[in-house]
Every structure is written in structure tokens, then in C-alpha cells.
User: Fold these one by one.
Assistant:
Number 1:
Amino acid sequence: MIFTKVRPRLSPKVRLKFDRRTDRYLLLYPETGLELNKSAMAIVHLCTGEWTIDEMVDHLIRVYTDVSPDEIRREVCGFLDVLADRGLLQRVS
Amino acid sequence: MNNEHRPYTLIAELTYRCPLRCPYCSNPSDFAGRGDEIDTDTWLRVFQEAEALGVVQLNLTGGEPLLRDDLEQLVEGAGKLELYTNLITSGIPLTFERLSRLRTLGLDSVQVSIQSSGPSVSDRIAGAPSFNRKLDAMQWVTSLALPLTMNAVLHRENISDVEALIALAERVSADRLELANTQYLGWALKNRVALLPTREQIERARTVAIEAKMRLRGKMEVLFITPDYYSEYPKSCMEGWGRRFIVVNPEGLALPCHLAHTIPGLHFEQVMQSRLADIWHHSAGFNRFRGEDWLPDPCRTCERRALDFGGCRCQAFHVVGDAGMTDPICSLAPGHGHIESARAQANRTTEIPVLFDYRTGRGCSSR
Ligand code: SF4
Ligand code: SF4
């Protein structure tokens, strides 16, 4: 589980690229990549090393008023888990 | 544009030449001499056309791509197109200066293939002293802050070495470790008796790899690629025929997978003669196994067909003799007996010392 006081930052080894065919962002890393949907993109935008996970969740709860806070927390943690699993995050604490 | 068939990755096989001679090289083994390689300008045009088709990843491979004198120009061209460029190499011949220049020109990541965790076995498998030079190469990659993937192709001779391979990957601070089992096509198919591990060996290696994956989570990604000879169902080879990948081989033939042209009766085009977009959309070879109409029984009605597309066409051809049949790896396939007998043979021959034949001539990428 990710410790929620951690401030995740996207590893400098990944590249975010706008995909003009799908109007989505792609997260490119060695020999593979992830296609980001809207919520994943919103989370990635906050992976700057400045936000703690708690702060990210709070911020997104304020922006996405139509989604339940529980769901937002689950999505943030789940997606950060995916990124961490693949070594795509650095932790700044 | 239709995203069902959109190439994301271009695999550019820049040359067949390679200073090493690994017996599991998966390129066609009928290669005698060195054919003509396509030139710099053609490659640069192919990169452009690939990008226009939707490609975002470029794998520069071979043989040994470092043997191309114009690698710098190619990396620079790919960089201008914002392709994520991966160099897939044996690490030989390389200097720190050259790697550093490639990085400046836009190289994004490097994969170094190693044969074993120590010099003696490694150099014997590769057929040349190479281990220490690979270590140097890997250290240069990380010192330049490029993502490093260490790739080890597993077979009977080195599969008991998995702990040491993991330790080595940690020592060189690899970002990713790929423990790939040999694909039994091309040369490796001819050497299958010598190379195929037993089920116990695979299970043990898998357990070790899973433990390492948990322990190294966040530091290093550990990928254990199960050999399909011991799986119940096939993998989706290349994520589906003509669906996500384009391979262009050193002579300029555009293919859905690097062995597709070894299947008789399929027609593929040269990038010198046709635009990549025309090839992608209209090539009879690319279209042959797209969609579901071509599917044989039992795939036609199987629920897994959207996951594995009936498996690998090359394996169906090279093992069963018909590229249009279900991949014999599948336990439901009519040709599955071929795989069962290969497994049984692997289990019988554990005590027999492994002898490697050495390839001469053409190299290939490590997968
Ligand atoms: S029958 Fe065909 S679709 Fe079903 S699992 Fe086997 S190979 Fe895949
Ligand atoms: S190209 Fe083939 S021979 Fe050369 S290092 Fe790779 S696997 Fe070995």
C-alpha cells in the first residue's frame, strides 16, 4: 500500500505524449506505454512531487463533484499503485 | 482512424550482422550471407510514415544495431518525430562516448541482453568473450540516467541461474529485468531438445522471480515471461497479427512479426516500393490473419479468441505445418500433441549435457 504522506513524482524516465489520434495522453516508457483516460490524466498532472496523496485526493474531490469521494480515493490509490508497480514513480517525502 | 488496427510500435531491424552467435537467436536460421541493408534515407522515411500511422515507440534492433554507422542519424531522426526510442543491443561494440552522443540525439532507453550471470557460461553461450563488456555497457546506461532493461533469455542451461541474474540486475541498477523464456522458433526450434527446460525448472524460476518482483517493487520491475510450452493457452503473439506492431527487417520487408515471411504463401511488401500506410492497410500478408473470419476450429467459437487471437501463426506453421491452424501451444488445439511430446522429451533428457551448435551468419535481436 502506498503511504499517503508521500509526494509522488513521475519518474524522469517516462515521457508524457499527447496522442492526436485519440485526444488522450500516453505515458511512454521502455518498450511499452499506458493510454491515460481522463481521470488517470488528472492524477498524473498532480504527480509533480509537490502534492501528497492525501492532498491529491482532496483536490480531486473538490474538482470532480459528481464522483463520490470514496471512489476518487480508490481510483487515485489504485492508479498510483499501477504506476509504482512499474517503477514509474519517484517518492519525494 | 480505426484504432482496432493501429500500430503503436515499429520494430526496426537495422542489420542481421552481430558480433555474437547465440544459439537461441530467433531469426530465420536459413540465412547464409549478408543481404543488402536498406539505407539511412529509407529508414528515416519509414520512421516518418510510421509516426503518421500512429506509431509512438521505436525499437532499434538487429542483429546488433550498434554495427550501423548511421545509428546516430537514425536516433536523431526518430527524436525529431518524438518517438520513444529504445535501443536493443548486446552492448557490443559500444563506447561511453557513443552512448552519450546517442542520448543527446534523443535515445530514450536501452535494453542490454545478457546470456548468463557470469563470464564463463555467458561467453560460451554467446560464442565470444563479451560478459565484461556488457557490464560496462550497462553501467554507462545508468550513469547517463537512461532507463536500463536487462534482458536474459532463459533456457535449460541458465534457468537455474535466476537468483544470480536478479542479483546482477540489482548490481547494475537496472530499471527493468526481463526474464524471457526462449521462443522456440527459427534456430531455437532446431535446438529445442538442448534448450527446453523441464516444468520443475520453470516453476522454480517463476517462484524466485515472483519473490524478487515483490521485494524490488518500485525499484526494479521484474518481468517473468512464461514459456508458452508450459502454458495451457497461447499468448497473443504480437498482440494480434497486424494489429499493434510493424516489423521492418534489414532488407526492407514490412512484416506483422519478424518471422512472418517464413510462412509460405504469404505476400509481403518492401518499404522501398510501397508507402508504409499502403502496406499497413492493404497488404495481403498483413490482412491474412486479421479479424475473425480466418479463425479455425476450435478458436472460432472459443471465448478466449479476443485475448489470444488463436496464438502464434509462425508457431502453427513451424510446428504443425499450417499457419492457419490453432497455435499448438493451446491445450484445445488439434496439433497440441507436438508440444506434449517436446515436453516429455525435455523431462527425459535432463541428465544429458547440453551441446550448443553455433550459428554462423545472421544475428537477431534477443527475442
Ligand atoms: S482455442 Fe483458440 S482462441 Fe481458444 S484458447 Fe485455444 S488458441 Fe485461444
Ligand atoms: S543478435 Fe542474436 S547472436 Fe547477437 S546477441 Fe542477440 S541473440 Fe545473441
Number 2:
Amino acid sequence: MNKSQSIQLDNIVIRFSGDSGDGMQLTGNLFAQLSAELGNEISTFTDFPSEIRAPQGTLGGVSGFQVHVGANKIYTPGDEIDVLVALNPAALKVNAKNLKKGSIVIFDRDSFQPSDLKKANFTTDNPFEELSLSETIQLIPIPLTTLTKSSLENFGFDNKTVLRSKNMLALGLVCWLFNRPLDKAIHFLENKFAKKPQILQANIKVLTDGYNYGENLHLTVSNFVIEKSHEMPKGKYTSINGNKATAWGLIAAAEKAGLQLFLGSYPITPATDIMHELALQKGIGVKTVQAEDEIAGITMAIGASFAGCLAATSTSGPGMSLKTEGIGLAVMAELPLVIVDVMRSGPSTGMPTKTEQGDLLQALYGRSGESPLVILAAPSPDMCFHYAFMASKIALENMTPVILLTDAFIGNGSSLWRLPKLADLPEIQPYYVPSDMENYKVTTRNEDTKIRYWSIPGMKGFQHCNGGLEKDYATGNLSTDPENHEKMVLTRKQKVDNIVKKIPELEIEGNIDADLLVIGWGGTYGHLKSAVDNLNNKGYKIALAHFTYLFPLPANTENVIEKYNKIVVCELNTGQFVSYLRSKIPGKIFSQFNRVQGQPFKTTELENHFISLL
Amino acid sequence: MEETKYLPADFKTDQQPRWCPGCGDYAIFNSLVKTMAELGVAPHETVIISGIGCSSRLPYYTNTYGFHTIHGRGACVATGVKVANPGLTVWQVTGDGDCLAIGGNHFIHSVRRNVDINVLLFNNQIYGLTKGQYSPTTKKGFVTKSSPYGTVERPFRPAELTFGAGGTFFGRLLDVDLKTSQMVMMAAARHKGTSVVECLVNCVIFNDGAHGWLAEKETRDDRIIVLEHGKPMIFGKSKDKGLILDGYQLKVVTIGVNGISENDILIHDAKCKDTFLHTRLALMEGPEMPIAMGVIRDVDEETYEMAMENQINEIKKQSSVKSFDELIDACEQWEI
Ligand code: SF4
């Protein structure tokens, strides 16, 4: 076959799937990165078991990495799979229901032996027929294991090491299938394995052999070319996942504010990568403490904030529950603090690696007493940077804790990100006490904005005692006076309410004069945007209002929503944001669309639902 | 650097302490402000962190930076402060409930990390602020409101816990003994690392006389031994009693009796890394043995915050990524 038989494609969804030890995350990531570098837009989705090594070949151990590569407007990792790379029968079975009609399945023939089929609970010797796939898909059987073994014959590796390189053979094949030159992939490998020259050489060899195998054997009738993107603004890009973007947003904010960055955290899936990334950045001077528990993570951060740092803590749902008391202290002490909750399926331990939007009500209301704070939710992996930066800015400039909600989907998923420069980011001015202020008390505040002035240990003449007990409005001393308490409660509330003046208004996307308004928040943006765009392209009239500032809500929220008669609020929970909206805009009728399966929405299911409402 | 002399009054606010009349906390507070004055660290460079309990009210009464936090978490907040700004002198005020029950996990981990904070552990063997429940240091069998038939729990011994967590400093003082109190607090402040000071304090309301056996002035010298590094372990009103090692046990001997001379008495080595003798000393109980006061252990180890600073400085030297813009420049990227 020659390249003239290439088929032009607008976009394609590829899923690499195998055992959690098969290196599917690395393979998928490499493919996504080099596609992005070739000018495609990308969106990725990782789906892995929480067991580190579930029994080999079983359904519970399947790990997947999905990449959506395309020319334009790739907002989601895609609903259905065009190309599945299945390293064992379990991987095939888990993904079967998401295969598109006519999709290509590349599988390791060597790993589809009777014993392998049994491990994946197949009862016949033809898994494709058993899954009723034979008619609808193109099969490309590859003796991956055999080929990898012969490829690495002369390396003197043990069997285990050899088998670990199977993923590179598969990647080489996929690179051929999609016309991805290998030099970029090799470049990535060189960075990744710089310190392990032998492994590097082996990986390059297997990758190249995989590519040549495809080229020589003309495995498919045609191969594919994916159009480049034409709509992205010119500039320098990288591909970034949400957790890393969150970490970098905090780094940027600290430098912009001229402050030391401190993170107190405790390992928890799927948030831990934020701590990993910050722990790595010692060259920038970031201080991280892996605390003894979630409570220590946040209270150390509160100590660091008291001492004048930009302080943050990162966690996920169950960790949020433990941090609740600490958040209350930060509210009462009126200290700046960023709390990142990378939401996962709950309640309790739930499904640690799966996504959900179940922590909104906890963020809004899950504390003792009258305890208002600011809540933000990032809409996509790359935008985690912006919202982590804004969460820090709001915290420092308004002396309040801020909760930033992301989720497992955008935390682990990646998208293209245009690289910023520090100089282009907004200024951050922490609300320090003016050095000439006299008679400072712990409660001294700006009477208009109600923002408390920040004095920091080391500043002479501004000593004070902060704490969790109620303070007298004027003197800052302890007080249980009834009127004073009410005044303090209202003051803290007023301070947070005032922040509405500093946050952007809600924008309507899609068709403004729509018959249906779709409302969403946080990490579901990509799917909602795709569904709304698709339907508008088909002639429907649909608008999208996507919230990223959840508390306080943008000032124009009610005005915007009032204009529409038909509204559907879409969430990955049983209706938390909609109940909040109902309490804010009483009388307005909201319908809702909810999924709680630990998975992101599917664009098609959204489209179908929206059409049914029209 | 300009030397400023401070007076105890410089460390007090105008707020009147509100402990019960006769509470042992007053004495500790007075010893503390005297120690602070002598130490000479400015009030604005001193931070006192506390949790919840009677003793945890103390930061309101000092003219330093203070933070009265939440139950059990003082050690964490103090760690955050010290790591954020190692230049500050950080004290943590905590009680036996705050430190060893709800805050037990944080306590052992701050000791393990060896963060340079001075922990004043007010041990009155009771919950005072919540009105009289047994604590992790309450003696077995003791009747309290939550143990009306006597507690069936075995108590913690703070020294053992400290040593078990790898503690580098342990001292003990008695509220009414101002001289020893200041001596121990001073040593704790000078020690680099987590200094645990067990303050035996009297709660006149809920556990009056818990340490009464020691507190009586006439007999005190026979019932306590004040340990000082490099000095012989001699005690008693007439300075005629001493400690020797008999097998694995400490034993009280009288100088001049049975041929025992001063030379036979153990010399206290607070700097010894091994905890064997420190443990034996800290666990001595009356009436057979005197109760050990003073500085029982004072060992040099790198502090947590300095280890972190040093690592950061080391990596800064090697790394080409020292700012956000450099981080961006160094990441995998391409032009579109
Ligand atoms: S209850 Fe006990 S510990 Fe508390 S202030 Fe009164 S005497 Fe002191």
C-alpha cells in the first residue's frame, strides 16, 4: 500500500487498553502528545482500576487511555471508540459496548489463547462472536508478544522486561496507521528514559519494528491522515492534565503575589499528582509537607497562611470530609487558603479512580455554623491553571478560604494548553495591613469591603491572637455577646458576598435566542459544549450557560436564566447544583439530567436528551 | 544585631488570665513570660500556637503573635508556621487531652519530624474545660464524670511516647517550682528540634492534688530529682541521696552509707542518643523513687524545617528552573 490510499479524517478516537501493568497510560499519552505536536487538538481520558495490580488478564484489572485527536473543537475525549488497541481479552470485553460501528480493533493474538479468554470470563473460543462484534468491526490480529520477543532477541532481557515493551510495538503500529512520523515519538522517549539508556534503545527498537510491521504488511486497506487544526490561536502549546495545571496555577499565583508557596497534603486518589508536581518544584522554592493525615494537611496549610504564605491543600471527597473542621477555622480566622477537591465517586471510599460531581453540596454547606466561603469549579484540564490562579488571587485579596472543585476526569485528562507568561497574568495584591496603621486588632478590616487586614508574624507592632472562637468586632478580644456574634456572622457573609463584584459575569454560548438553555458547571463543560454545538449545527436552537464561579454566583445569573423557559441542568450527581439554583431563584422551573456512573457524560446521550426536550 | 533587653511585662497583654483561682496554669504562664524575656526574642518574632482546653487560652494573654486553633491540631498549625518561616520562635501550648488524645497522631509526627517548636504539655491528668472527664494520662481507676466507677484505661506516659517517636528533647517541670520551670523552658527554647516539656500542673477544680505528693514544699526535695546535663544525679533535702544503676534498674542510694561515695553516683548525660537511661529516669515513680524533673533528654539532630530549607537550596543550585517562566520554558512544547 502506498500513502496515496490514505483517508482524510476530521477526528478520531483511539483507546489503548490492557492490564494496568501494560503501560497503556504512557502509550496513550505519547500518542496524544505527538498528535498535538503535529497540529491536532487533543483531549484525553484515563480510566484505570484503583487496584495497582489486579490479577492479570481479569476484567477488574483493565486500564485504559482514550485519546480524541482532531482538527477542530475537540472538547471531549469522545464517546465512542474508532480504534481500540486491546492487549488482552478483558480489554476487549470492557470496551466492547463503546466500539463504534466499523471500528478497528487491533489485538494481541498471542494473548487471546483459551486460558486468557477464561480469565476474562469468555465461555467460547471466539470472543468477537460472543460479544456480537464480528459483523461490525474490522479485526487486526497481531502476534504482539511474538513480535516483541523477536524484536528484542539480542538485548539479553528477561521475559518480563521484554513483555513490558509490547505497548511500544502497538504504539508503532498505531503511528503507522495514523501517519505519525516516529522521530517525535522517539524524542519523547529520549526525555522519558534519559537515565536508562538500555530501556530507551529497546523501546525505540520495538516502536520502529511496530511501525515497519504495519508498513510492510499493509495491515489495513488504508491508513489515515487527521487534519490539522486551523482555529487555534498561534503560539506555543503543550498538553497538560488538570492536576499538573492546578499545581502550576498555584506556583504562578505565589510568584505573582511575591509569596512563598506552601502545600500541606495527604496522598489520596485522584488528587495526589498535585502534591507530586509541587514536591518536584523545589528549584522554584515550593514547600510541601506530606502530612500524617488530611486534617494535618489543611491545618499545616492554615499555619503557613497565618505565617504569610500562599497556602494550599489538595484532596478528594473523603479527605474533604476530614478537612471540614479546618476549613471552618480558616473561615473564622479569615485567612487566605486554597482547598483543591479533585472530586471522585462517593460517598465514603466510593470509586476512587472514577469521576463525579458529588461534593458540591459539601463544599457549599458542609461545615458547622454560618460558614461562607468562595467556591470555584474548573471546566477543563487546561483551565485548571486559570482557576487555581484565580482561587489564589481571590483568597489573598479577600482574606478568605476558597474551594476549587475539579474532578477525576479533568484532573487526569489532558488538553492542549497555550503557554502563558507570568507577566501576562493578572496582578495579585495580598490584603496586607498598611505599615502605618495604628491600633491594629485582629478584626481590623476595611469597612466597605469587610476584608480583614493581614498582619504576619515578624511585622513589628501588629501582634495579635487569632483563633476559632468568636471575636469582638472592634477589639478582637473573645466575645460571646449576642449582638456582636450576629454582627460578625453578617460581616463574614458580607465579605464573601462582596466578591461577586470581582468575578466575571455569566456568559451564554451557543444560540442566545434558544428554545432550550443547558446549564452545567465544572468539568462537564467539554461534553455540554460539544453537544450544544453539534445540535446548533444541525439547526436546533440551544444555549449553554456553564458555571465556573459557584459561590458567589455571577451577578447576572438570575437575569440570564429568567430569559429562558426551558432549562435543563446537567450534572454528574443526582441534582446538587440544580437544588442550589432552585434555592437562589425560587419559582423558576428547572429540569435536570443526571448521571452517576463514575464516567463523564456522553455527548450523544446529551444530544438525544436535549432533542427530546424540544 | 542590636541587643534589646526585654522584661516579662513586654510579653503580657492587658487581658487578665481567666483560669480558676489557684490553677497551676498561672504559674506556668509566669515562668513562660520570664523565660521569653530572658531568651530575648522579640514579641513580634515569637508565635504561640494552642489547641483547645484550659491551657490553650494562654496565647490571649501574651503580647506575641498567637493562634488559638482547634482541638488537637496545634502541632500541625505550629509545624506550618515554622516551616513557612523558620526564623520565628514557635511555642505550642497544649494539654493532656488536646495533645495525647485528639492530637495524639499530630504529636507523634511532629516529634518524629523534629520541627523546631517548643511544646509545653500541660499535664493535669484531666479534661478541665469540658468539666472533668478522664484523659489519656489519668491514672487507672480514677473516678471522673465519664468514669463514675473508675477508668479502666491504661494511661500514656508522655516521655515514652516522645522517645518512641524519636524525640530529641524531653523535660519535665512542676508548676509551683518556678526556678526549675524557667531552667527547663530555657533549655527547651534553645534546643533545635521539637522540645517536649511535660508541665505537671494542678487542676484545682477537677483533679486537685494530682501531683500533690510532689508539690508539698517541705518534702519536695526528697521526692524529686532535678536533672542537669553533666551533673551527678544527687537529690534530697540534705543532698545525700543519689541514683545508681543496679543491673537494668535505677536504684536510690544514700551517700556515706554502705560505702557509697559521690563518685558512685551516675552523671546525667542528656546528650546521649540512646534512650535507655532517659526512659528509666523519666519513668521513675514514687514513693520508692524520686520523680525526675529538669532536662531528661537534649540530643542534637537536624530539624525538619532546616532539612527542607537545605534541600531546597541544594536543588536550587542544580536546577535551571527557578521561576514560573523558566518552568514554562522547560516543558515539552511546540509552536502552532
Ligand atoms: S478547670 Fe482546672 S485546669 Fe481549667 S482553669 Fe480551672 S483549675 Fe485550671
